[in-house]
What we know:
The chain is an alpha/beta fold. The chain has two domains: 2-91 and 178-211, Periplasmic binding protein-like II (D-Maltodextrin-Binding Protein, domain 2); 93-175, 3-Layer(aba) Sandwich (D-Maltodextrin-Binding Protein, domain 2), CATH 3.40.190. Helices cover 33% and strands 31% of the residues. The longest helix is centred in the last third of the chain and has 20 residues, at 192-211. The two termini are 34 Å apart. Bound molecules: adenosine-5'-triphosphate and 1-O-pyrophosphono-5-O-phosphono-alpha-D-ribofuranose. Residues 139, 155-162 line the site of 1-O-pyrophosphono-5-O-phosphono-alpha-D-ribofuranose.
Amino acid sequence: xxxxxxxxxxxxxxxxxxxxxxxxxxxEDPFESRKLILPTxxxxxxxxxxxxxxVPTFVQFGSAxxxxxxxxxxxxxxxxxxxxxxxxxxxxxxxxxxxxxxxxHNPSSRLKVxxxxxRSAENYYASLGQQIDxxxxxxxxxxxxxxxxxxVIVDLVDTGSTLKANNLVEGEKIYDISSRLIANAASLxxxxxxxxxxxxxxxxxxxxxxxx
Length: 212
Ligand code: ATP
Ligand code: PRP
């Protein structure tokens, strides 16, 4: 049995058509079903539906053999016990700094940064030699600078409409993001043929989309 960890939300919406193209289809609609372990049209493939931030953990510890996860989440996890097999190009966005319109940091004070992406933010500001105070949040980060909880945020940006709606402006980009196919390191050895088949089938489909 090959187990694939997926998360609800935008990744699921974008990965289901790709999986269908390589012949894997959920037996029930994952958006409607309350089941968290879903059989597929293939007897030897099943899907786990987990939180986006938990996908690397389920794969790392072998509850799932492979998974689909944003590069942002993968970086925060650290990647222990995982192999990154393919950039799927889906759920593309960027991690960026954002601040209230007109914000200017006084260089003699420590910058207060609110984010869910603490590892990325720490590495980014360390690379600039900038000392920061981190505030860990799990969502609605845009509110932090508006209420004095932080000076700036580090968050995902796609269209920029969330920032605009909250009177924030995008600053420096930290890195570009897309979803990755990851594998459990042990499964990659023991189930190599099955995993390689899926990867090899997905690769030209993803490249064709990139080239279009
Ligand atoms: P969790 O439920 O575990 O907190 P989440 O709310 O971040 O996770 P999603 O919003 O579905 O889950 O995001 C999953 C992934 O999709 C992110 O890790 C990122 O890689 C990508 N992503 C998030 N927001 C956007 C966006 N606005 N545009 C494009 N891709 C995005
Ligand atoms: C993500 C992210 C931003 C928004 C950016 O939130 O945290 O708030 O998308 O996208 P935009 O630049 O196109 O506006 P999401 O919609 O996933 O909500 P969440 O707070 O549940 O993560």
